[in-house]
Prior knowledge:
seven-stranded parallel β-sheet; alpha/beta
Amino acid sequence: MGKWIFSKKNFTYHKKQQSKYVEAKLFILRYLPNSMPKILLTGGAGFIGSHLLDFLAESKDNQIAVIDNFYKGSIKNVNHHLKNRNVSIIKGDIRNFSTLKKIGNVDEIYHLAAQSNVMGSLKDPDYSFSSNIIGTYNVLKYAESCNAKKVLFSSSREVYGNPMHLPVDENHPLNPLNLYGSTKAAGEMLCKSFAQSKNMDIRIVRITNTYGTRDIGRVIPIFFAKAAKNQDFEIFGGNQILDFIWVRDVVEGIKIVSGSGKYKKETVNLGSGKGILINDLAKLIIKLTNSKSRIIRRFSRSFEVSSYIASSNKINLRATPISKGLMLLHRELQKSG
């Protein structure tokens, strides 16, 4: 099968028989009868991807292949699925088209694999470009080659840049402010090109700032980590007003968009529809955690969007209020230690 399957060499704490088990399941995935739905989830070991996997794996009728290069995703996020006979975990990179071809034919694709934040694109622009643009092209080409019935592409509110008005609906012009937003906008253009020229059902969700368990390196997990150690919060600006959405609400939105025929070839915003000042967000977390952390204000950064609140006339998503979502996250973080 090659090195892109989980192996003892790659993850030394896995038993040898587990490696064989995963490899065997991949073989089963490729040769299941046509009556069994076959799903490919790219980036399935990442933050949002692993939560989506939890939902998809609830159905015993789904046979799921997860591909992730573990650049940012973690085996811990999918560890509870390793013994699930309907889930195959593949260590591979969507930038390599031959890796995708080895998976065989699938019916549906959820494409979440990406360099997924602004700071990451600044630190490694080459990876951001190759993963978000070349990788997306490979996934679309693969979808065409196996006649996939449906593709869902995970985009970002970063494609809008600094909006001309609030709230922002799907008809707002795209004007990305940074490399990450630009690569996501390019990915959207590729999706629309394939949808039009190849008559493929490709759906796009533009996701706002997401928070929840398994997230790392973004503002809310950084704030919680600092609060636990009574360390000062360093805030760049602080007057930015942004829309934050609980990760399980994002999964619910993806479920709605992927599950209804009315969203065929559509683009849909996924957000809470509410905004909060970053400075107020910091105060809320300090209060919630009873932390002694202080807020240190710095100058705002030119590559960060100053405001965004999502709006959509295409989906009625009942999002969790951020005060409740942060409380839920705090409880889960306390349980996990």
